[in-house]
Design goal:
single chain, about 375 residues, alpha+beta, Ribosomal Protein S8, Chain: A, domain 1
Amino acid sequence: MAHCNTIYSQILKFVPRHEFETLAKQHHSGRSFRTASRWSQFVTLAMGQLAGRSSLRDIVDNISAQVHRLYHLGSAKLSRSNLSRINNDKSYALYEALFGKLLGRCQGMVPSHDFRFNNPLYSLDASTIDLCLSVFPWADFRTTKGAIKLHVGLNHDGYLPEFVTVTEGKTSDVTIGLTLKFPKGSIVAIDRGYNDYAWYNQLTKKGIFFVTRLKSNAKTRVVERRPVLAVKGLTSDQTIEFTGAQTAKKCPIQLRRIGYRDPETGKHYVFLTNNFKLAAKTIADIYKARWQVELFFKWIKQNLKIKSFIGTSKNAVMTQIWIALCVYLLLAFIKFQSKLKKSMQQILRLLQLNLFEKRDLMALLRGDPVRNNQFAINQMALL
């Protein structure tokens, strides 16, 4: 009879322990640990994410119930005070670095996006996470409100969050957009929150394409008109130049303006891009696909713990968010490796119910029937 470790043990094997310990040494500060470790912190908090635990007490009680299995996970039991102290004092940068390592592993096995072109495709957006200002005074956002902001550049190859930054709630979207280094030839779908005409000019010079919506008050001049297929919802396809004094100075290049009416809603959109090769309908579809980054924010907020926090310090909050993002990549890795058509949510639900069961992980995901252990023992006795 084949022996299987717990489902959780098999998940943790996707995090190479030697790589983790190398990162832990690089990001260690202060006194050395006696019994606790960063690995124990990660095992405990990742379990809390996978199992949907909502509080520090809930996490510690749940992991304590599995104390006899912690040795096989390479982890020590952490008390609430111990876990809280590590969350507050030990830098979250470790898990930001771990996220980068896991992202690299996932990128080697992702499926390509659904469009015919081969250019890398990204959707860029940000989501605000509300915090109580009296509890999180460091997260000053408005007079009576605190917040932090999660910025994500989602790669449509596998829908992986390839660019991730967590900032103060006041940080503008375009400020982060200006710092991102997209590969040459890539296409970036952005909304009007990233409107910056000088940035459009910079992206064009770097050989990076963008697709966004044109502001209604933008002053432009039509240089060229191209025929469009009205049956596809297209209303215009033009080459334009900006005529506003400041705008023309910031973005002195010709761009492409495309009008499109959504046949389902009847709403009219005007898109702006520096890509003159793709079909006008493809440009409209690229912007529509930007909705995937919104779905990413919705999924991670509904299925992982990044809205309610088990610590109040900035380091504790950032630690929880980066571990949640690491867990997302672990789930994505399992999905890619299994090559099954189950959704990420279906995979997470299966793991939640079987986290400490001794079963083969892939057999669980495939839905293989559980073999009766007593029957197996009897069969071995007969041999």
